[in-house]
Amino acid sequence: MVKDITIYTTNTCVYCVMVKKWLGSKNISYNEVNLDVNPERAQEPVDLTGQLAVPVTVVTKSDDSKEVIVGYNLAKLAPAVA
Amino acid sequence: MKKNDLIIIGAGPTALTAAIYTTREDIDTVLIEKGAIGGLIATTDWVDNYPGFVDGISGLDMADRFQKQAERFGAVIELDEVLGIEPIDELISVTTTSGERFAKAVLIATGSDYKKLGIPGEDTYYARGVHYCATCDGAFYRGKKLVVTGGGNSAVQEALFLTKFATHIDLLVRSTLKASDVLLHELEKNDKITVHLGVTTDEIIGDETRVHKVIGTDATTKKKVEFETDGIFVFIGLKPTAEFLRSTGIEFDSIGFIKTDENLRTKIKGVFAAGDVRSGATMQVASACGEGATAALRIREYLEGHSQQAA
C-alpha cells in the first residue's frame, strides 16, 4: 500500500513531465519538489540515488519502506505504485 | 481482440502530425509511446527553425502543443512499449508489454536517439557525470565546469543552454563545427564556452562516484589533452530507434535506419515508416512533420483499398 509519492523534478525535464502524466492518468496523487524552485534541495535526490539526474520518484509504502526510481521507467514505476 | 484502423509506434512530431491528419479523416488511431511524448524534440531546449513560431519555442512546449492538437481530433496516446509486429492475414499484430493488439495499418515513427561515444568511463559514470539530456540533468551543474562533445546543432544548442548553470564549458569538436550560422554566432558571443576543434573525446576519468577529467587527443599534434570537469554531455549524432524490429522482415540500411519506397511503405504490407527512423530522413522537426502528413495520406489510401477488399 502506497502512503505517499514525492517526485524531484526540474522545469525543463520532459521525463519529469512524463512521470507526472503517467501518475495523473492513473489518478495517483503525488508531491513535487521542483529543483529549479528549490535549488537548496538539489542534493536530496543525489543522496537517494547517487546519480545527478531527474526525475527521481520516491514511493513511500504504508510500512514506511521506500522505493526510489530514477527516470521515466514504467517497468519499475508501475509495480512500485501498485 | 483490441483492433484499430491505425497503430502509430511513437509519439514524436512525425507520429503526432500523422495522427492529426488521420483522426481528422475518422481513422481510428492509437499511438504507443515508450518514452517521452514529443520524442527528442521534447528534450531540446529551444526550437528556432520551425515555421510559425516567430520568436522560437521551447521543445517541451512544442511537444505539448502537438499532443493537444492530436488529442483534440481524437488521437489516443498509450504509454506502453512495442516489442514487435507481425502480419497476420490482412491485419498487423502489435505486441506490447501489455499484450497483443491488431491494426489494419501500422506507422513506425519511433525516431532516433543520441549516440554514445563508446569510450572508457562512459557507462561507469552514466548519470553520475555522463549525460545525454541537457534539459533533464543540466540543473545539477550550477557553478560547475562541464565538457560538451559534438559539433552539430544539438551540441552547440545544448552547450549554450548549459551556460545557464555551468561556469565554464569546454566544447570538444572532433573535426569542424557543423552547426547553423545562427548558433555559431551565439557561440562566438558566449564567453563561457571554449571551443576545441580537432579534438577527439577518448576517456572519462573519475573516482568511481564522480567525473573529474575528460581525456582527448589533439588531431594536429597527436598529443593527449586533458580537461578538468565535473561532467560531460554527449551530442555526437543520432541513431535510429528500430532495433526491436530487426526480426520482422523490415529492410534496414547499413546504419540501421528503415528503408521505405517513395510512398513510405516498408517491405511488410500495411506497415509504413516515416520521420527520423527512416533511411534518408533529414532529422529536422519540420521535415518530420511533413513526413508524418505524407504517411497519413498514403495510409488513408491504403486503408481505402483495405476496406474495399474486406467488402
- Could you state the CATH homologous superfamily of chain A? Glutaredoxin
CATH topology of the largest domain in chain B: FAD/NAD(P)-binding domain
Task: Please give the share of residues in helix of chain A.
Answer: 25-40%
Which word captures the global form of chain B? elongated
**Which CATH class of the largest domain in chain B is shown?**
Alpha Beta
Give the distance, in angstroms, between the N- and C-terminal Cα atoms of chain A. Answer: 8 Å
Order of helices and strands of chain B, N to C? EHEHEEEEEEHEHEHEEEEEEEH
- CATH architecture assignment name of chain A: 3-Layer(aba) Sandwich
Number of strands of chain B: 17
CATH superfamily caption of the largest domain in chain B? FAD/NAD(P)-binding domain
How many helical stretches of chain A?
Answer: 3
Can you characterise this structure?
The complex is a heterodimer of chains A (82) and B (311). With 82 residues, chain A is of the alpha+beta class. Chain A has a single domain, classed as Glutaredoxin (3-Layer(aba) Sandwich). Chain A has three helices and four strands; from the N terminus they run βαβαββα. With 311 residues, chain B is of the alpha/beta class. Chain B folds into two domains: 184 residues, FAD/NAD(P)-binding domain, CATH 3.50.50; 105 residues, FAD/NAD(P)-binding domain (3-Layer(bba) Sandwich). Chain B is 24% helix and 29% strand. Chain B is built from six helices and 17 strands. In chain B, strands 1, 2, 3, 4, 5, 6 and 17 form a seven-stranded mixed sheet that branches. Chain B has a five-stranded parallel sheet with strand order 8-15-9-10-11, with helices on one face. Chain B is elongated and about 65 Å long. The model of chain B has no long low-confidence stretch (mean pLDDT 95).
